[in-house]
Amino acid sequence: MRKLKVQEFLALDGTAQAPGGPDEDTSGGFQHGGWQGTYLEDTGMSWVREGINDAAAYLLGRRTYEIFAGYWPTNPEAPPDIAEPLNTKPKHVASTTLTDPLEWQNSSVLEGDVRSAVAALKEEDGGDLLVMGSLKLVQSLIQHGLVDEFRLATDPVLVGGGKRLFPDDGALRPLRLVDHHVTSTGATIATYAPA
């Protein structure tokens, strides 16, 4: 059975919205897009590459798919060791508005409800699935008990609001620490699994 791994950047206050750039996601009036950039150094980049390269396929929400599809296949400045796996490996997209065929190479829309579709993907042979960004999708996956591992880079910054990674549903979900590192910029990179 394949594992489903979630890899995310978090601010210390739990925000995961728009870590990469000012215009990435300004919904809800979020004004701190790109907050993560000053904390990404060699250890963090190795962590990013490891997650992307180790995955056999990616699971993305519609918004993250559109951001990635608009950047990775066409940007000549994209690091090749990240762009190559993202561009060539299978990408499964959770969306109620997109339809196949999708333009980005090896991308397809999940059929049926997300819970059943992702559970079926996990039952297939092959390597692990990786989710990046896709906060609404991740919250749904957490609520349905489909996440096997959280790979989190938590930066020492408070952004005062914005979209969170974890659902605010009152459920208790114990985790166990699998691995951790502290970077030279004070970010904590940790891997957790359900306890």
Question: How would you describe this structure in keywords?
Answer:
alpha/beta; eight-stranded mixed sheet; 25% helix; 195 residues
Write up this protein:
It is a single chain. It contains five helices and eight strands, in the order E-H-E-H-H-E-E-H-E-H-E-E-E. It has one domain (4-194): Dihydrofolate Reductase, subunit A, CATH 3.40.430. The chain has helices at 42-54, 62-69, 80-88, 114-123, 135-143; strands spanning 4-11, 57-61, 91-94, 107-109, 129-132, 149-155, 175-182, 188-194. It has an eight-stranded mixed β-sheet. The chain is globular, with a radius of gyration of 16 Å. The mean pLDDT is 96. Strand 7 and strand 8 (188-194) form a beta hairpin.
CATH H-level superfamily? Dihydrofolate Reductase, subunit A
* Topology order in helix (H) and strand (E) letters: EHEHHEEHEHEEE
Global outline: globular
Can you tell me the CATH topology?
A: Dihydrofolate Reductase, subunit A
CATH architecture assignment name = 3-Layer(aba) Sandwich
Number of H- or I-type helical stretches: 5
Strand order of the largest sheet: 4-3-2-5-1-6-8-7
Please give the alpha-carbon distance between the first and last residues: 18 Å
Number of domains: 1
Strand content: 15-25%
Structural class: alpha/beta
Radius of gyration in whole Å, from Cα?
Answer: 16 Å
Uncertain runs are: none
What is the β-strand count?
A: 8
Q: What about the largest sheet?
A: 8 strands, mixed
Text of the CATH class = Alpha Beta
- The mean pLDDT is 96
